[in-house]
Amino acid sequence: MNKLRKAVIPVAGLGTRFLPATKAQPKEMLPLVDKPVIQYVVEEAVRAGVESLVLVTGRGKAAIENHFDVAFELEDTLRRRGNLSDLELVQGIAQLAQFAYVRQGEPLGLGHAVLCARHAVGDEPFALLLGDDVFDEADSALEALITAHHATGCSVVGVQEVPLEHVSRYGIVNAPPASDGPWKVTTIVEKPDPSAAPSRWAVVGRYVLEPRVFDHLAALEPGVGGEYQLTDALAALAREGRLVAAPIPAKRWDTGNKLDYLKANVEYALKRAELRGDFAAYLKDLAKDL
Ligand code: G1P
Predict the structure, then answer these.
(1) Rounded to the nearest 5°, which phi and psi values hold at 106?
(2) Own/partner pairs, 96-99, CB within 8 angstroms, 24+ separation
(3) Less Cβ crowding at N or C end of the chain, within 10 Å?
(4) At what angle do helices 84-94 and 72-81 cross, to 10 degrees?
(5) How many other C-beta atoms can be found within 10 angstroms of the C-beta atom of residue 135?
(6) Ligand 1 pocket, CB under 6 A
(7) What pLDDT digit, counting tens, does each position of 46-67 carry?
(8) Ligand 1 centroid vs 204 CA: distance in angstroms?
(9) Any alpha helices (H) in the chain, and if so which ranges?
(10) Mean pLDDT in the chain?
């Protein structure tokens, strides 16, 4: 089976959940410790073997393009100062992969954002990674989906079980049969009421999709708020028997949610050798008074 070469990352969202921080900067550039969230997501794709990234962008997102480009003045200054470790750090970002950008002119939903990438992707399977969902670097979230895609030949949604009170935040699929590993999706519904949810298995921002999904996206009728839902196109793949769900065995933070964003920052800081000791001592001291 051929290697999965391409990935799409939609980054056109307005980030209204993080105002005022996102008034004049993209939400994807908010850092976990000192690295922007979007870089963690790009690195996950690269670790899984992706070589070519298509970012679906919009107005006000130039900082993302600059981040993954050569920073000539900065690199020149670091070189003259002999700061070779920072120079290597900065240069490495532009060398992570090949980057292409397509614009989503209007906020017409996730399905529309993915459709905007059609010509850049062409006629081959691709990964789709949503920038708010960050998985622990120690695990390889996307690889679980690529394995499932190669095993079944179908499109794949990455899923995790969430508390019942959270099902209305996600696309929800039918529950798995008893065995481990990928299972056929027969039902997928977007943000159901907990009383109507087919299970607690939530689609968590990672997909491997066949190019056929573009035909379904192009045929969609707009849903609530004039938005085109990716889930409606995935439901069409499920009806054709072409969609499987793969459980992702990795720790995840929804960095679009303030509490999860803070938790991710704390945990990533504790992973850093240069911060861990002092930061852990500070947290223990702080916790005494909570
Ligand atoms: C989107 C999808 C939803 C998915 C979620 C994962 O929702 O529409 O199916 O479960 O991402 O994060 P959003 O978070 O953009 O509202």
Answers:
(1) -130, 145
(2) 96/42, 96/43, 96/46, 96/68, 97/42, 97/45, 97/46, 97/50, 97/51, 97/52, 97/53, 98/51, 98/52, 98/53, 99/53, 99/55, 99/65, 99/68, 99/69
(3) C
(4) 160
(5) 25
(6) 110, 130, 132-133, 170-171, 190, 202-205, 230-231
(7) 999 999 999 999 998 999 999 9
(8) 7
(9) 37-47, 62-67, 72-81, 84-94, 110-116, 118-121, 141-152, 212-218, 230-239, 258-271, 273-288
(10) 95
Q: Are the C-beta atoms of 124 and 70 separated by less than 8 Å?
A: no
Q: Counting every residue, how long is the chain?
A: 290
Q: Determine which residue's CA is closest to atom 15 belonging to ligand 1.
A: 110
Torsions phi, psi for 102 (to 5 deg)? -120, 150
Residues 232-257 pLDDT 10s? 999 999 999 999 999 999 999 999 99
For residue 1, what pLDDT is reported?
Answer: 54
* pLDDT-above-70 percentage for the chain: 99
Place of tokens 């990674």: 129
Span from the CA of 202 to the centroid of ligand 1 (angstroms): 9
pTM of the model: 0.95
Domains and CATH numbers, the chain: 6-256 (3.90.550.10), 266-290 (no CATH)
pLDDT > 90: percent of the chain: 89
